């Protein structure tokens, strides 16, 4: 009994000095015979606190960023985030992954790293097998870090995924720099490319009207590489500020190009071509005084009655080309209106049909209308008829042609397209050595021929 009491006392002394008693786990067992220690037990001597050296300032230890406390239950959870495919700033980026527990309905949140913080972007719940899927549209292009977590706060989340980088590319329409200016009716256009390419996608060309208003000018589609060409109306001289936009998308997804300036200037822009017999099948025949090889086709611009520029054509004698270009250069500059300007072959070679169509023309190997015994001066490719309805003529048989031009016999009422001595076309032709048929006893207001 005495030894048992002594053993308990010794264990207490050993614990007091920080040692584990070897026999503590079996205190009820007999202890081997030992010499009893002295009854006095010394207390441990305290370790002195060192005095800081006054000459050295201790460097403060940085405070570590608190790590979210994970409970034993949270340690059993994990969440993955698959690397997302590259996307565009106006198209959804898809994020997928799964949690370690195949649970349906777990609350998952998507976070994006922005300068200085993680920002909540979306939330969803897991489906069968613990998988999840986000579809998020980022308005800002760039390479961004994303992560997901089980829960809504990092401090209490059951698990946080490693972050994945997502490349949000800049969808854009780039316009090529237009030419300094375009002549009327030469095919003014805006070209460029859209990234990414969406073959067949419609694009719209707009011009700015001021006060925030835009007007639709043209519609086109992209080719397989995203390239496009959109025609700019060039039948009137104008300076336009234009842009290209995507069509059939909602306003937030609409893409706009930068601005471009397109300048269209009025110009005659004459082009001269050789003439073959196939080009004059109704107005030329064997025995005519001028062969096709001595004729030329002039294509040139003229002002129409509608106030816009049109493209016309004249078949003329080769030696008359420079004279005709000089005449029509001044006439075009004066904006003298022409109804139409087509070779008479377009009317089957019929002078009557050509006149009724108010057509301006030159060459036509034929007899004089109203006098079948005389060869028309038009057979030589020099004479020209202008605006035949507004400027009718009295034929040798006493009939006015064309019949739909009778109202214009009264020359005292001035109307567009009528020719007078003061008209630019009249003066220009006279300056080139032409005679005006209005001075004949049977007036021919439409007709000019060399003296």
| Major sheet description | 5 strands, mixed
Oligomer: single chain
Using only C-alpha atoms, the radius of gyration works out to 49 Å
Amount of beta strand? 25-35%
Instruction: Report the count of strand segments.
Output: 25
Count of all domains: 4
Q: In which range does the helix fraction lie?
A: under 10%
Give the overall pLDDT as a whole number.
86
Spatial arrangement of strands, main beta sheet: 1-7-6-3-4
Poorly predicted sequence stretches spanning 5 or more consecutive residues = 1-68
Q: Helix count?
A: 4
Shape, per Cα inertia axes: rod-shaped
Question: Which helices and strands, and how do they pair?
Answer:
Elements lengths: L1 H15 L70 E2 L3 E7 L8 E8 L2 E9 L5 E7 L4 E9 L13 E6 L2 E4 L6 E2 L5 E7 L6 E9 L2 E9 L5 E5 L6 E9 L13 E6 L5 E4 L20 E9 L5 E9 L3 H13 L17 H6 L10 E2 L2 E5 L8 E2 L7 E2 L5 E2 L22 H8 L2 E3 L10 E4 L1
Parallel strand pairs: 1-7, 9-15
Antiparallel strand pairs: 2-5, 3-4, 3-6, 6-7, 8-10, 10-13, 11-12, 11-14, 14-15, 16-17, 17-18, 19-20, 21-25, 22-23, 24-25
Helix pairs in contact: 2-4
